[in-house]
Amino acid sequence: MFSQIFLRSVSRFSTIALDFLSRIVCRIPVLKKYMENTHQKTVISAQGKTLPCIAPLITTVEETPQVISARVQGHLPEWLNGYLLRTGPGKFEFGKDKYNHWFDGMALLHQFKMEKGTVTYRSKFLQSDTYKANSVHDRIVVSEFGTLALPDPCKNVFERFMSKFEKPAITDNTSVNYVQYKGDYYLSTETNFMNKVDIETLEKTEKVDWRKFIAVNGATAHPHYDPDGTTYNMGNSYGKHGSCYNVIRVPPEKSDLGETIHGAQVICSIASEERMRPSYYHSFGMTRNYIIFIEQPLKMNLWKIISSKIRGKPFTDGISWEPQYNTRFHVVDKHTGQLLPGMYYSKPSFTFHQINAYEDQGCVVIDLCCYNDGRILEDYQLQNLRKTGKELDQVYNSVARSFPLRFVLPLHVDLNAPEGENLSPLSYSSASAVKQADGKIWCSYENLYPEDLEEEGGIELPQINYGQFSGKKYQFFYGCGFRHLVGDSLIKVDVVNKTLMVWREDGFYPSEPVFVPVPGANKEDDGVILSVVITPNQNERNFLLVLDAKNFEELGRAEVPVQMPYGFHGTFVNI
Ligand SMILES: [Fe+2]
């Protein structure tokens, strides 16, 4: 393809030259390789120019239920046969009612089918009960994360008042991710509901309620998988003893074909530091033997959340960033369910996504995409994302950026170790774990990136070669750079040498990169990166991009004449 490779030893001059070049060749994808860390400080401030409007990427679209052919340019590898399945919000209003937050939109399921060098596409709205009820009533009848469903306007004043005291319906709009249990695919959000789907037809086949199997009120949309298919997840419970964070294990075996998450067990419950104010979390870490839970100072005020309907406020009103608290790491032995005694703390930070975690020399190493401010959830209101001009720049400049950080947690803390001693034996990491007078371990992180990543606006939506390197020492991860409020580049990070490779095409916004290994590969980055690249420009086409994961060069793309909104997560399934 038309990729240009810029190898650079970064200097101020080359940065300016690069920006100039990328402007004059704005239709040509720019592939940058940052080969060294230059300690150059660059503040991304909307790149010194007004950010382009991305409102068309955060807007309601039509579904494409019939399979259509994509126009392939370049060459897709012969071995690349399977589905790229993605999900994200695709409908933001019903009748006169409008959602407030990006996370509220109705789940639109996308399927790119790759077979012998050809690609087809289809999309369908998930037929959740929430979607169906909203459609039938032509208004929002189920509350979402940032939107409170209002009482039926057809009811009289008394009925409308009394309906505030009715138990609120819980959404089954599972728009966040595809997850796997016992070999079946489910769409998940963070409530108690998941929807099982047929990945060929994208039809919902069954709705599953976690509460019918174990005492949890939901589970994350980012479970972890053992090689044998055992799935681990985490979910909260709110009982008379306060709130707990629970580690869940779902076995891989099915004793009958109709099984869903039968046999699920809570293997460990961790009491929340504050009974009625547990932390919000979106993912967790897993090594070969341990689960790592991060209790971060983004608090959920349960009183406020329970009373949201009476108070006329959305759930988001009950979530607050409280940096007066530190972040705490909890480590659980996943075989015994025992919580380790180590009390690991670090300065306040917020993470959506862990990158990877592994064990080395008696320590757990965990890498996270971290923000130094947890108010990012508030920033992703739809009205912010749809702003234009200087107002859009202001939003972008006020939003915290995400950077990859490494923490080291020593597993066996010597009670006699002197105060102030760094207990991390890892010579390759500057992350420290220092014993304090009160026995707690204070963890200082290592930056896992060259400063060039600041120019890219940080990184989010991290992915690794999961099948071969999850829970193991690794070298590469992939993510989206954020020089806008949605990803505007694809980045490969070498966490050993701290170098970057960047793919970007001006005016296009790539989704979370999914790594697919070459069959039989033995090198970590021997495979391709799949990403759905979309544009707000009506004269351009959206496409599925296939990059060589080794050198980040384009192998091919498959264009589809269909409008698509910016989505959240996805997965690749071999056929
Ligand atoms: Fe996520």
Description:
The chain contains 10 helices and 39 strands. With 575 residues, it is mainly beta. A hairpin with a 4-residue loop joins β32 and β33 (499-504). The longest helix is centred in the first third of the chain and has 13 residues, at 12-24. The radius of gyration is 23 Å and the shape is globular. Mean pLDDT is 90; it is low at 1-28 and 34-46. Fe (ii) ion binds next to β24. Fe (ii) ion is lined by residues 176, 222, 282, 352-353, 569. Its EC number is 1.13.11.71. Belongs to the carotenoid oxygenase family. Its cofactor is Fe(2+).
Quick overview of this protein structure:
By secondary structure, the protein is mostly beta strands. Helices cover 11% and strands 38% of the residues.
Q: Treating each run of at least 4 consecutive H or I residues as one helix, how many helices?
A: 10
Whole-number mean pLDDT: 90
Which structural category fits the helices and strands?
Answer: mainly beta
Overall geometry comes to globular
Q: Calculate Rg over CA atoms.
A: 23 Å
Strand order of the largest sheet: 1-2-33-32-31-30
Roughly what percent helix? 10-25%
Euclidean distance between termini CA atoms: 27 Å
Describe the oligomeric state of these chains in a short phrase: single chain
The hetero molecules present are: fe (ii) ion
Contiguous uncertain segments of 5+ residues:
1-28, 34-46
